[in-house]
Specification:
The chain is mainly beta. The protein has no helices and five strands. A hairpin with a 6-residue loop joins strand 4 and strand 5. The chain is globular. The model has no long low-confidence stretch (mean pLDDT 81). The structure holds zinc ion (ZN).
Length: 67
């Protein structure tokens, strides 16, 4: 199964992140290990150490097409 990355905006809950390795799930802001290094942010599963999300914010202006 794929991680829940994108989907319909209708039922928008807290962004819950799933670990594909051990099925750990929690909102990103709760429970996950968030490692910030400069412009990079890595979200690591606290249960098994799997990197669930990794992103760089360099050269990516904070412009989301939110509306
Ligand atoms: Zn895990």
């Amino acid at each position: 199964m794929n991680a829940v990355a994108s989907g319909p905006r209708s039922s928008r809950q807290k962004s819950v992140l799933f670990c594909t390795e051990c099925s750990f799930e929690n909102p990103v802001s709760e429970g996950w290990l968030v490692v910030s290094d400069g412009d990079e942010r890595t979200i690591v599963c606290p249960e098994c150490g799997h990197v669930a999300d990794h992103r760089t914010e360099r050269s990516a202006p904070a412009t989301k097409c939110a509306d």
